[in-house]
């Protein structure tokens, strides 16, 4: 091809250097656990990202409720503007219909860009996007509709655990020598054995089901085609840290306890999932790894004693970004949860909006990204606002019970 023709094609196809963005959410991840593991070579994929990019502490303005923070990450707006405060309100769940403002997938769709969102928190019912969306409720036993977009999207990853039970148990064995008692539900409710089984099943099996399952789906989708923006939410570090924090070696529990290695081993396992996702990242793409908050030991100040909860949220989460458009820096100032969406837009060559509460993290970006003027807003008239938002679905008794056992109901 002659050079002028080559440049003409580049000019017609837009900025030749513009790559995709992979936004990988690790709920509850903290540098306090990750850093020693990186030094020990047990998180080689995260280490590789850090060697080619920026790192910082993410400090969200309200670190208590994950759905609130993940919605701010996806919208660039605080709760006063987006309206998602928690998992549930009264006896019903918050849903994507309660969100009062546009999220990244809406913004990209309006700009004619493509999105692949897998398991991102508060994405039920799924929304119409230019691309695909797999709801965070995909593996729920209680919801069976509006879990994928487009509605005829067929996935080979089974929705229910039965099809994957053996594989998940094998994974659990890698994390702990604990062997669950098959009849544990009949044990006396106040016995330590009952409690250990409860934590094991409610925490570890759910975490593995979620993270392994959504990574399988992501691989399946990314192998078929590329997207401008890929998002995934991996919840397991948070679930496992809430349940097993006190058993960590060095904590007060006996270091020989079968649960003592779960937290660091789960981080190493998450790194292996990161490695599976990084295989789809091209040389021009950017990877952003972010958590909504960190984790610490639960104290009496965290409210009523809950024997199955020993980790509590800490305000300091993780932020890392890597790719040819990102500078290799250790950023001193903290990154806010609302800074992520405008930064993702900037990396994609799209404008941020002036009604967002965050700003583009320009100090981690390499100079040379084409300037894009901000726009006033991505909002369209007609989006539900507060009281006229859809009422959502009620929680079933089973689900209330699970939320209670998981510590989400106060
Ligand atoms: Zn949590």
What does this structure look like?
With 410 residues, the chain is α/β, with parallel strands linked by helices. The protein has one domain (22-405): 3-Layer(aba) Sandwich (Alkaline Phosphatase, subunit A). Helix content is 33%, strand content 13%. The chain contains 12 helices and 12 strands. The protein has helices at 3-12, 31-39, 44-51, 66-75, 79-82, 104-110, 165-175, 192-224, 236-244, 262-278, 340-347, 397-405, and strands spanning 21-26, 53-59, 88-89, 92-93, 115-118, 131-134, 148-149, 229-234, 286-290, 294-297, 311-314, 316-322. A hairpin with a 2-residue loop joins strand 3 and strand 4 (92-93). The radius of gyration is 21 Å and the shape is globular. The N and C termini lie far apart (66 Å). Mean pLDDT is 87; it is low at 1-16 and 385-391. Zinc ion binds at residues 28, 66, 238, 242, 313.
Summary of the model, kept short:
With about 400 residues, the chain is of the alpha/beta class. The protein contains twelve helices and twelve strands.
């Amino acid at each position: 091809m002659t050079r002028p023709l080559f440049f003409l094609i580049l000019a017609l196809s837009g900025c030749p250097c513009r790559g995709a963005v992979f936004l990988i959410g690790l709920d509850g991840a903290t540098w306090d656990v990750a850093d020693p593991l990186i030094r020990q070579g047990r998180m080689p994929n995260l280490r590789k990202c850090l060697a080619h990019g920026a790192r910082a502490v993410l400090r969200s303005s309200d670190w208590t409720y994950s759905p609130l923070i993940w919605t701010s990450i996806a919208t660039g707006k605080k709760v006063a503007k987006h309206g998602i405060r928690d998992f549930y309100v009264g006896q019903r769940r918050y849903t994507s219909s309660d969100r009062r403002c546009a999220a990244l997938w809406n913004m990209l769709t309006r700009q004619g860009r493509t999105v692949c969102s897998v398991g991102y928190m508060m994405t039920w019912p799924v929304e119409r996007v230019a691309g695909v969306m797999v709801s965070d409720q995909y593996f729920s036993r209680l919801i069976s509709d509006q879990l994928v977009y487009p509605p005829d999207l067929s996935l080979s990853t089974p929705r229910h655990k039965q099809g994957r039970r053996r594989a998940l148990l094998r994974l659990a064995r890698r994390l702990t020598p604990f062997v669950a008692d098959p009849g544990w539900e009949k044990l006396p409710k106040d016995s330590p054995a009952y409690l250990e089984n409860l934590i094991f099943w409610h925490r570890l099996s759910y975490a593995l089901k979620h993270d392994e399952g959504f990574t399988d789906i992501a691989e399946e989708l990314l192998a078929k085609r590329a997207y401008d923006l890929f998002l995934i939410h991996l919840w397991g570090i948070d679930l496992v840290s809430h349940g097993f924090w006190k058993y960590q070696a060095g904590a007060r529990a006996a270091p020989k306890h079968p649960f003592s290695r779960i937290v660091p081993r789960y981080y190493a396992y998450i790194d292996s999932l990161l490695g599976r996702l990084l295989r789809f990242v091209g040389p021009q793409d950017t990877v952003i790894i972010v958590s909504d908050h960190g984790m610490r030991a639960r104290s009496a100040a965290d409210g009523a004693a809950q024997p199955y909860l020993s980790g509590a949220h800490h305000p300091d989460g993780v932020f890392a970004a890597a790719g040819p458009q990102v500078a290799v820096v250790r950023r001193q100032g903290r990154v806010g949860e609302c800074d992520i969406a405008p930064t993702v837009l900037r990396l994609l060559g799209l404008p941020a909006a002036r009604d967002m509460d965050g700003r583009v993290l320009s100090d981690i970006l390499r100079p040379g990204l084409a300037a894009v003027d901000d726009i006033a807003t991505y909002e369209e008239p007609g989006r539900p606002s507060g009281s006229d938002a859809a009422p959502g679905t009620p929680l079933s008794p089973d689900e209330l019970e699970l939320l209670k056992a998981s510590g989400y109901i106060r």
